[in-house]
Specification:
With 189 residues, the protein is of the alpha+beta class. Helix content is 46%, strand content 14%. The protein has eight helices and four strands. Helix 2 packs across helix 5, helix 3 packs antiparallel against helix 4 and helix 3 runs antiparallel to helix 7.
């Protein structure tokens, strides 16, 4: 297979954009659909499609922000918890929520299905970034709160949020963060 130097250079230098510095606009549906189609090309042993996506633009984001605040108050959360819950939705222009939805299978362990959902999150970030948008994979307490994910995203008892990917117009270029040292993270056998 011939090398794709452009793709390799992109992967070797890609970085997430903090959602706090992204601005509008976000990709509209016509621009987002090919991004999601590319992202769905993830490893999926058994072709189970053990995930689903929920796409939210401003009206849905406002609803999710309100639900997060209401849930934080139900939990007796302080102002910081309320802000962390609703803030990511208030500041966002578009969020793609990746729901891990494992399927019963004698052949494909749930962990492989979970990893496929994680690969889908990375795929959304990479595809959006490759298309020229800023993207950031977040979670936060709302992603792990059963009542919130059920109310906001319709998660069943066997589903959970693998990630919330915010997509928008990149803000000012960000300095790259320190990256892992291969000498400390790779063992050659």
């Amino acid at each position: 297979m011939p090398a794709n130097d452009t793709a390799f250079q992109f992967l070797a230098t890609r970085q997430s954009y903090p959602s706090k510095v992204m601005t509008g606009p976000a990709p509209d549906r016509a621009a987002l659909e090919p991004i999601l189609q590319a992202a769905l090309r993830v490893p999926d042993h058994g072709k189970l499609e053990p995930w689903r996506l929920v796409v939210g633009y401003r009206p849905a984001l406002s609803t999710w922000a309100d639900l997060a605040e209401a849930r934080a108050r139900e939990l007796g959360g302080d102002p910081e918890k309320i802000e962390k819950g609703r803030g990511q939705f208030d500041r966002s222009h578009l969020a793609v929520v990746v729901i891990a939805a494992p399927k019963a299978s004698d052949k494909i362990p749930e962990i492989e299905q979970t990893l496929s959902a994680g690969a889908l999150c990375a795929g959304v970030v990479n595809a959006a970034t490759a298309a020229g948008w800023g993207a950031n994979w977040l979670s936060g307490w709302v992603s792990h709160d059963r009542a919130f994910v059920t109310r906001a995203f319709g998660c069943t008892d066997t589903e959970w949020v693998a990630g919330i990917i915010h997509i928008g117009t990149p803000g000012n270029p960000m300095p790259d963060r320190p990256r892992p040292d291969p000498a400390h993270t790779i063992r050659w056998a």
